[in-house]
Write a structure and sequence with these properties.
Distance between the termini: 27 Å
Order of helices and strands: HHHHHHHHHHHHHHH
Family: Belongs to the autoinducer-2 exporter (AI-2E) (TC 2.A.86) family.
Keywords: Membrane, Transmembrane, Transmembrane helix
Radius of gyration: 24 Å
Number of strands: 0
Number of helices: 15
Pfam families: AI-2E_transport
Membrane topology: Multi-pass membrane protein
Organism: Variovorax ginsengisoli
Largest sheet: none
Shape: globular
C-alpha cells in the first residue's frame, strides 16, 4: 500500500511539473504542436489521395506527397488571407453594427415595457462600464495581425519534421536498447500515426465541407463577411462540442448586428444548426467511426485542461494530444489504467 501511495504521489508531482512547464512554455510548445498537427494532416491527406480509385494507384508516392503539401499550403494561405482581408472592413463597419445592436436592444426594451429606452450611455453606465464595438473589434483583430508570422513558423517546423521523418527509423534503432524495444517503439508510433493522422485528415475534410455549406447559407441570406465566417466555422470544427455551438451563435450575433432584428438571425442560426446536426450526427460518425476510441467525458476534461494551459490553441489541440497520450499510456503497466479510463470501450 505504501509503495502504491508513493507511486501515486510521485506520478502526481511529475504531472504537475510537466503541466507547469507546458504552461510557462506555451509560446514555444503551441507552434510545435500545431506543426505536428499539420504534418499529420498532410500525411493523412496523402493516404486518402493514394486510395482514390484510378488516380491514386497511378501516381508515384513522391507526387502524392507533393500534391498533399500543396493542397494544405493553399488551404492555410486562404485561411490567413481571408482573416487578414476582412480585418479592416470589420473595424470600419463596427460603428454601424453598434447602432444596429442598440436599435435591437431598444426594441426589446419596448417589448418588455421598460420606461426609458436604453442608449449606449445608459448601457455603459448600467451594464458594461465602457463599450465600443469598434474598439473591441480592433483589439480582438489586432492579435490576428500576428497570425501570418505564426503560420510561417508552423510551416517551417512542419517542413523540418517532414524531412526528419525519413531518418526516424535510424534514430529509433540507435536509441533503443534492443531490437525488440525498437520494434515496440515503431509500433506505438505507427499506431499514433494511423489513428491521429486519419482523424485529423477526415476532420479537415468534414470541416471544409461544413464551411462550404455554411458559406452557401450565409451568402444566400445576405450575411456580410460570409467567407470569413465560413473559415471560422471550418476551424471551429476541430473543437469538440463547443465548436458546433459557436459556429451557430457567432454568425447569429453577426446577423443581429447587421440586420438589426431577430427574424433573419433566427433563420440563419436554424439553417446553420441543421447543417451542424446532419454532419455531426450522420456524416461525421459514418466517416470517422470510432477512430480515436476516446470517452466523451475524457474529451471534455481534456478540453478544459488544455484550454487552461494553452488558451484557445489548446481547444484545437486537445483531442489529438489526448489520443496520443492514451496510446502511449496503454503501452506501460503503470499507466495502462489511465489509458483504460480515457478510452471509450475500455480497450485502448
Amino acid at each position: 500500500m505504501n509503495e502504491r501511495f508513493q507511486t501515486l504521489v510521485y506520478g502526481t508531482a511529475i504531472a504537475l511539473m510537466i503541466g507547469w512547464v507546458f504552461y510557462i512554455g506555451r509560446n514555444v510548445f503551441v507552434p510545435i504542436m500545431f506543426s505536428v498537427f499539420v504534418v499529420y494532416v498532410i500525411l493523412g491527406l496523402a493516404r486518402l489521395i493514394g486510395r482514390v480509385p484510378l488516380l491514386g494507384p497511378a501516381l508515384p508516392q513522391l507526387v502524392i506527397s507533393i500534391l498533399s503539401v500543396l493542397i494544405i499550403a493553399l488551404g492555410l494561405a486562404m485561411v490567413v488571407y481571408t482573416i487578414l482581408a476582412n480585418k479592416d472592413s470589420v473595424i470600419a463597419m463596427a460603428p454601424r453594427y453598434q447602432e444596429s445592436l442598440l436599435a435591437a436592444v431598444q426594441r426589446v426594451a419596448v417589448l418588455m415595457r421598460v420606461e426609458a429606452e436604453p442608449t449606449w450611455t445608459t448601457l455603459r453606465r448600467d451594464l458594461l462600464s465602457q463599450v465600443s464595438l469598434q474598439r473591441m473589434a480592433a483589439s480582438a483583430l489586432a492579435s490576428v495581425s500576428s497570425l501570418f508570422a505564426t503560420v510561417i513558423v508552423v510551416a517551417l517546423y512542419a517542413c523540418f519534421l517532414l524531412v526528419e521523418r525519413t531518418h526516424l527509423d535510424v534514430k529509433i534503432l540507435a536509441i533503443a536498447r534492443s531490437p525488440e524495444q525498437a520494434r515496440r517503439i515503431k509500433q506505438v508510433i505507427a499506431d499514433i500515426n494511423a489513428r491521429v493522422g486519419a482523424y485529423l485528415a477526415l476532420k479537415t475534410f468534414l470541416g471544409v465541407l461544413l464551411g462550404a455549406l455554411s458559406y452557401v447559407i450565409m451568402r444566400f441570406a445576405g450575411l456580410e463577411f460570409a467567407g470569413f465566417w465560413a473559415v471560422m466555422i471550418a476551424l471551429l470544427n476541430y473543437v469538440p462540442y463547443i465548436g458546433s455551438f459557436l459556429s451557430v451563435v457567432l454568425p447569429g450575433l453577426m446577423a443581429v448586428a447587421q440586420f438589426g432584428s431577430a427574424g433573419e438571425a433566427i433563420q440563419i442560426m436554424m439553417s446553420l444548426a441543421v447543417v451542424q446536426f446532419v454532419i455531426g450526427n450522420f456524416l461525421d460518425p459514418y466517416v470517422m467511426g470510432n477512430s480515436l476510441n476516446l470517452s466523451p467525458f475524457a474529451i471534455l476534461v481534456s478540453l478544459a485542461v488544455w484550454v487552461a494551459l494553452w488558451g484557445v490553441p489548446g481547444a484545437f489541440l486537445a483531442v489529438p494530444i489526448t489520443a496520443m497520450m492514451t496510446i502511449i499510456f496503454s503501452e506501460f503497466p503503470g499507466t495502462r489504467p489511465i489509458a483504460v479510463l480515457l478510452s471509450q470501450n475500455g480497450k485502448p
